[in-house]
Every structure is written in structure tokens, then in C-alpha cells.
Amino acid sequence: MLPWKSIIQVKKSSSQPVYLQIANSIIMEIKEGVIKPGMKMPGTRELSQLLKVHRQTLVNAYTELEAQGWINSVPSKGTFISEHLPEIHPRRLAVIEKISSNNESTGYSFLINSFIKTPVKPLRNLLGFHDGPDGRLAPKKQLARAYRSAITRKSGMHHLSYTETIGNYELRKVLSDELNSSRGMQTTPDNIFITRGSQMGIFMLSQLLISKGDAVIVGETNYYYTDRAFLYTGANLIRITVDDSGIDVEEISRICSKKKIRAVFVTSHHHYPTTVTLSAARRMQLLSLAEKYGFIILEDDYDYDFHYQSSPILPLASADKHGMVAYIGTLSKTVAPALRIGYVAAPMNLIEELCKLRQIIDIQGDHVLEQAVAQLFSLGEIRRHMKKALKEYRRRRDFVCGMLKEKLSGAMEFKTPEGGLAIWAKFDQKISLPDLSERLRKENIILSNGLIHNTDETKKLNATRMGFGWMDLREAEKAIDILSKGVKAM
Fold first, then answer.
1. What is the spatial distance between Cα 388 and Cα 137, in angstroms, rounded to a whole number?
2. Which residue has the higher pLDDT, 53 or 479?
3. H or E stretch including 144?
4. What is the pLDDT, as a whole number, of residue 115?
5. What is the spatial distance between Cα 323 and Cα 129, in angstroms, rounded to a whole number?
């Protein structure tokens, strides 16, 4: 007789019903050859006593096994393992230790994307220099009220059904109006495609516009996940110097005269990660080159709303007369990271192709949330929030930059950014950023080790983005004090 108590594992704490645990254990032993075709199974009363479970649980388990074809019940004789199963070479009972789960690895091979880093927990519960906005400043009550309105009004019930792949019309309308009034663009709602954040827009555009072997120009250094979206298509990245006036357009011109370029990616307003702004002269020159050589400009304007010194410089898309620019924006920075709403503004024929591609990804976005945000725009809540948030973020920027200059001027250098929510900090080469980051992590302070920005390891960048928007002044003071002590201890 087989040692049923050992080979059938029942965990009362499991969320899976006990009868299914028993049935699955028996199936696994059949597959591994321990329980062979034709073998007689113990009666439900006997096995229930061995396993110390209710007899009805065993009846349910046997019913499940029979329904799946693993066992046959023969009247007056008993229950037998089906004869029609393949004979499986049995393993030795001495090795009865079970594999705890098949959740860790597949039984088959597949492509491993080794050039994309494994996601890590954001650790936003810890204090530190996180990149991005402070969700505590979001207009939570107004958003909740608008969301509730979107799903409770009779006129809004259609938002709970299947809707347009391109995105909620009301949101596309207010975004089109906003782009035209604040950024000097000339769009209609039909030029706007709603995505789940800007990264989705970048990925979808790369899938449509870039093919294997295409040459794509990016800055040195550039946003890590944008690079990976291009590499995923098989593109060849050409990295161009970024100085205090943005990406070097003269260098782009020289490259275009020698080889075919498919696309140029720019974060024109505040280059990621260095925060510099692409000068107006270079913008016009880049547009001229695009028209001359026929390459696409992918313009990611992820933080246009965050500019402190003066009026923001208009995006390249505002001066695009020949349809050379695909413009990408997001509300995840404007309101809160959890608000996964981004958009692409482009000519209608490209928008149509984005809609086609969307159908094989998720059919449509979150139309209830999109309607709620559209309502916030219409009521002026987004503008009021941005005015208040911009004032607070400027205050935080000035405080953090002042403290860093006071306490760490000899250990790092940076320029006070004209906009955005982070500074680009270059640390003294004697200070190992990875070691410093690890030391601070033990003190529950987050500081990026900067390795994600090292696109050229020979240059030993030793620089990182330090977010200031996520912390209030009290939190920032504490984080900088600990950072200062960490630097001195190295």
C-alpha cells in the first residue's frame, strides 16, 4: 500500500479547496509514475480517515478526478486509475520529497529579455530622493467627486461599457484645447490618442514606426525605458552628446549626411536625466533636418507643466508644419503617478494605426477615469491644482538646492534646474555612488545609485537624478542630513 499520508499534501491554510488539493496531488503522482494506470485506489472512507478530512471531501475529490478522466469507478469493485493513461516510468519512493510549487519556473523555454532590468519594488514608503511628484498634493477630493459623478449619472452609464479605442472623447477634446492654448499646437480631438501613461505611448510608437536595424538617435545619456523600447524593436541606437543647450543638433546633422536615420528621440523641455532645455535655435534646426532627411521626431514632453524660471519654451510639435513630430505627454506627473493617463498627439493616419495596435493590447483604456479627469479640466480644477503644486514644488526645489549647496558643495555639483522635479547631481569620483546608495538604504533613505544612467561604462558617470518634489521641507531636511553624514563617513 502506498504511503498516502506522505504523497497527498493538504494545507488547511491554503485558499484552494481541500478536495482540489487532494485531486491535484493524486494527478501529480500519476504523472510522476508513483500511481500507475490500473491501480486500485483506497475507498473514500479509508482515505478520509488516513488524511483526517471529512469523507465528503474525498467524494468530491474522486468526483473531480473522474470528471477529468483520471479514474474510473467500477460498481461493486472499487475505484481504479484509468488504464488509458500513458505508462510513466516510476520514480523511487525514497525520493518522495515534493516540488513545492510550479510557480517559480516554467517547464519550457522562452526568450529572456536580458537587456531589460527586472522590476523592483518602488519603496515609496521610505524617505528619500524619489523621482516624480508628491501624490499627497493631488486633488484627491475633486478627483473622487468627478469619478463618482462619471459612474452614477444616467448619462454616463456608457462609460462602463465598451467605448472608443482612441480614448474618451471629452478628455481628448479638453487635451486638444489645452495643447493648442498652452503649447501653441494645432490639434483636434482626432489627433489625440489616450494611453496608460507616456511609456505606453513610446512603446506603441516604436512598434509602429521602427523596424529591426533602423538607426535611432537618442541623447547620451537617455531615459532607460525609452532606450529599451527601441532596443526591443531591434533598433540600433546612436547616442548624441547633450550639453547645456540640449542634444547636439550639429552632430545629428553630420550623422544624417552620412547614413539613413529613422527617428530622433528628444525630451526637449527638460532632458532626461540631466534636466537641460533644448534651445529654441536647436529646435528649429532639428525640425529643418527632419524635413530634409525624412526622419521622425519623437518628442516626449513628460513635464512641460513644471517650469519655474519663465514661460516654457514651446515644443517642437508647435512649429511642425509637415507632420514630422509625434508628441507624447502624460498626466501621471501632472496629477499623480497612479493616474495612468498619457497621450500621443500626431497626424490622424498615425492615430488610426495606434488604434489598430491598441486592439490587440487591451481594447480600450479606463474610460471612467478618463471622463473624471476630463471633468476636472472642464471645471478648471487641473489648472488650480497645477498653480498650487507649481508654487510648492518651486519652494521645495529652492530649499533642497540651498541645503545641498550648504552641506555637500565639496562632494557634488549641480545646477539648479529651471523646471522638472529633480536635479542632476554629479558626485566626486572619490565617492562611490553605489556604495553611498547602499549605505543610505540601511538608514531607510532612498538615493538612486546612478547605474541606470551609465550608458557608457568607460566614462564612469558617477551621477544621478535626485528628486525633490516627493518630499516636504521637513522630510527633505532629514534626508539631506542623513545624506551628508553618509558622505562624510565614506
1. 9
2. 479
3. helix 140-152
4. 79
5. 39
CA separation for the pair 41, 30 (Å, rounded): 12
Question: What's the pLDDT at 167?
Answer: 93
Contact between 296 and 329 under an 8 Å Cβ cutoff? The reply is no
Supply the pLDDT for residue 72. Answer: 86
Q: Could you tell me where the beta strands, DSSP code E, fall in 301-373?
A: 325-330, 342-345
Q: 458, 474 in Cβ contact below 8 A?
A: no
Radius of gyration of the chain (CA): 30
C-alpha distances (whole Å) from 207 to each of 119, 203, 212, 357 are 22, 6, 10, 9
* pLDDT for 310 beyond 80: no
| Mean pLDDT lowest among 102-106, 174-178, 315-319, 424-428 | 102-106
C-alpha cell at 151: 459612474
φ, ψ of residue 343 in degrees (nearest 5): -160, 155
- In this prediction, residue 136 carries a pLDDT of 92
Q: How far apart are CA 237 and CA 230, in angstroms?
A: 8
Q: How far apart are CA 469 and CA 481, in angstroms?
A: 17
User: What pLDDT, on the 0 to 100 scale, is given for residue 90?
Assistant: 53
Q: At what angle do helices 433-442 and 473-488 cross, to 10 degrees?
A: 120
Higher pLDDT, 101 or 236: 236
- The whole-number pLDDT of residue 391 equals 94
Amino acid present at 298: L
CA dist 327 and 68 (Å) reads: 54
Q: What is residue 188's three-state secondary structure?
A: coil
* Buried-exposed string 24-55: b where 16+ CB fall within 10 A, e elsewhere: bbbbbbbebebbebeeebbebeebbeebebee
pLDDT per residue as tens digits for the range 215-227: 999 999 999 999 9
Q: Tell me, rounded to whole angstroms, the distance of Cα 386 from its chain centroid.
A: 24
Q: Which helix (H) or strand (E) holds 243?
A: strand 236-243
SS3 state of residue 330: strand
pLDDT of residue 245: 93
Beta bridge partners of 237: 216
42 prior amide bond cis, ω within 30: no
**How many other C-beta atoms lie within 10 A of the C-beta of residue 451?**
15
In three-state secondary structure terms, 281 is helix
At residue 257, φ and ψ (nearest 5 deg) are: -75, -15
Q: Which residues make Cβ contacts (< 8 Å) with residue 374, sequence separation at least 6?
A: 168, 170, 171, 173, 174
Closest to 246 measured CA to CA, from 216, 274, 288: 274
Average predicted confidence (pLDDT) for the chain: 89
Distance between CA atoms of 297 and 286, rounded to whole angstroms?
Answer: 9
Cβ 19 vs Cβ 61: under 8 Å: yes
* CA–CA gap between residue 439 and residue 435 (Å, rounded): 6
Per DSSP, 313 falls in state P
